[in-house]
Write a structure and sequence with these properties.
Length: 358
């Protein structure tokens, strides 16, 4: 480890899994306490390969990626790594087992000497609140002042709220995060008109990891397609979306898929739905099936993209291009049909009354 960092308090955060949901808060919280946040590098093919080499093949892609990011932080010389166990986000609303058991998995597959900071958040338990979680997170640094911890949490929420405002306005994940870390709020002002709009539905750790999603937003932009995500919706809209599909919230990350799908399927400005899910993920397969069935009722086309470490970019792009081309043709046909109906209506209205009834 470089000499200048020896005496600094540092915490490593893997750029995977819950990073994409909570990092703005963690950044504001830890930095306010004088703990330098070190994030692993962006996901690469090597990240996936290294992570995959330590777990059984049946392990889902997001976990393989997470393990790879742990190894990346260790290569950087970070000896304290934040691996939270986020059991539930509210009473009886649970995360899937891969998120709940991350500390145990990492402890068993990564055989290196480092401190796993495994704070547990479980809002289904009486003593599983946020402040207990935060106290656990900073205990390895000798920070015990509860008043100071609560003050730092306010800074965390400030960064998080600013981030949410910006990503809700349509700003990209990376840009919103960059501005939020600087204490800035910049609202997206993209006035470009797009002929086609799609909702891209996936868990944040699949959607905003450029290696997993194959930079899908850049690809859709090049195809002149506007992309919407769950991030543009309020919690109320997501809750209504789940109800509209006749479903109840059980998995914590159902908002990102089922909730968003329920909303966008009813939005006439959305021409189609694209889902991205990890191959072999049980909860994902259930949600995707539910979305596909509902889409048929609303007559909305759906493209289901399943990814693993073997997924090739060429095939990924081909399927997106074919899907968007179909949406363009479908919309053109709809517009032409409306024009013909209007012209026929005008023609009939211009005929003498006796001609219309002949």
């Amino acid at each position: 480890m470089p000499t200048e960092t020896k005496n600094k308090m540092q915490i490593g955060i893997p750029r995977a899994m819950s990073y994409y949901n909570y990092f703005p808060f963690w950044y504001g919280f830890f930095e306010d306490l004088g703990i330098e946040v070190i994030v692993s590098d962006k996901t690469t093919k090597q990240t996936m390969s290294l992570g995959s080499s330590l777990v059984v093949s049946e392990t889902c892609l997001p976990v393989k990626v997470y393990v790879g990011h742990i190894l990346n932080l260790l290569d950087k010389g970070i000896d304290k790594i934040f691996v939270p166990s986020i059991q539930s986000i509210k009473h009886k609303i649970y995360n899937c087992s891969k998120i709940r058991g991350l500390p145990d998995l990492i402890r068993n597959v990564v055989k290196k000497d480092f401190t796993i900071i495994e704070a547990t958040l479980d809002k289904s338990e009486k003593n599983g609140g946020l402040y207990d979680f935060l106290k656990e997170a900073v205990a390895p640094f000798g920070i015990k002042d509860e008043k100071r911890i609560k003050q730092a949490s306010k800074e965390g929420w400030k960064v998080m709220n600013n981030f949410k405002i910006m990503i809700n306005s349509g700003l990209s994940f990376e840009k919103a995060l960059s501005y939020a870390k600087k204490g800035q709020v910049v609202i997206s002002n993209n006035q470009k008109s797009y002929p086609i709009s799609v909702a891209v539905l996936a868990h944040s750790y699949n959607l905003f990891d450029d290696r997993i999603s194959m930079k899908i937003f850049d690809k859709l932009e090049k195809l002149d397609v506007k992309a919407y995500t769950a991030e543009q919706l309020s919690i109320e809209q997501l809750q209504e979306g789940i109800s509209s599909l006749g479903s109840k919230l059980y998995w914590a990350n159902e908002y990102e898929m089922t909730g968003a799908a329920g909303h966008y399927l009813q939005d006439n400005n959305i021409d189609g739905i694209i889902t991205i899910n990890a191959f072999g993920c049980g909860p994902d397969s259930i949600m995707v099936e539910r979305i596909s069935r509902a889409a048929r009722k609303f007559n909305k086309p759906v493209l289901n993209l399943s990814v693993d470490e073997q997924t090739g970019e060429a095939g990924f792009i081909t399927r997106i291009e074919a899907f968007t081309d179909m949406l363009f043709r479908k919309k053109r046909a709809s517009i032409i049909n409306k024009i013909n109906i209007n012209e026929n209506a005008k023609h009939e209205s211009s005929l003498p009354k006796e001609s219309q009834h002949r």
